[in-house]
Amino acid sequence: MLRVSRLCAAHGAVQAVREVDIEVVRGTLVALIGSNGAGKTTTLNTIAGLHKPSGGTVTVDGRDITGWACHKVVRSGVALVAEGRRVAPPLTVLENLELSAYSGRATKAQQAEQLTEVFDLFPRLADRRGQLAASMSGGEQQMLAFGRALMTRPKVLLLDEPSMGLAPSIVDVLFQTIETLHTAGATILLVEQNAELALAVSQRVYVMQRGRIVTDGTADAVRGRAEVMSALFG
Ligand SMILES: Nc1ncnc2c1ncn2[C@@H]1O[C@H](COP(=O)(O)OP(=O)(O)O)[C@@H](O)[C@H]1O
Ligand SMILES: [Mg+2]
């Protein structure tokens, strides 16, 4: 289980994350929604060790990982699919996946197993394993970014706006994959600006506005609440 408690983070004078509490129970899919600039990416990046918190704690299965460097966070079992899908463009699909596995906590045998799983999940990556990441479409690069995260055998998967800038047909494929992972038992914290998409797949939703969680609950309970409307459109 991932537990974020009173987390704070700043960019210079901008308090981007203010005393944020989030719980992602093992096996659940939790969404974090809010308008552009609400602080969603800063929250995920701070959990993942790309950004230093200015307060609060992050624990994974009770282990305090607050402020750890990102490579140590990955080894603790938390993998981030970053906003804007970071892949290594000069490397092939296979090299991207192998490199990522190396930074994770999997043994050699587990890495081979994991590669099979990723190729099962994204047959398109299997077909293009020898192709340079740079030559792939945005949707394929997002699949590769997912694949890279999965190669580390995460306990918790953090997804930052997987639908961003992609055609609806690719978004459908990615969200089907997210649901497949969830059904298979993955623990996922999904950041998404498309609230409808997020509400449709998640069990629990946190709504963020100006750095704070303004409301949370089940997708059905949160839907239509005044705070949600104001956070998303206000
Ligand atoms: N690198 C940065 N430098 C300065 N301010 C930033 C930086 N990144 C984000 N911010 C500010 O922090 C706030 C939260 O941004 P962000 O976490 O990216 O929000 P979201 O992902 O919800 O759109 C915004 O006010 C944004 O302008
Ligand atoms: Mg963002």
UniProtKB/TrEMBL annotation:
Family to which this protein belongs: Belongs to the ABC transporter superfamily.
Pfam families: ABC_tran
One GO term of the biological process aspect: L-amino acid transport
Keywords, ordered alphabetically: Amino-acid transport, ATP-binding, Nucleotide-binding, Transport
GO MF: ATP binding; ATP hydrolysis activity; branched-chain amino acid transmembrane transporter activity
Gene3D superfamilies: P-loop containing nucleotide triphosphate hydrolases
Name recorded for this polypeptide: ABC transporter ATP-binding protein
Organism: Actinophytocola xinjiangensis
ABC transporter domain sequence ranges: 2-232
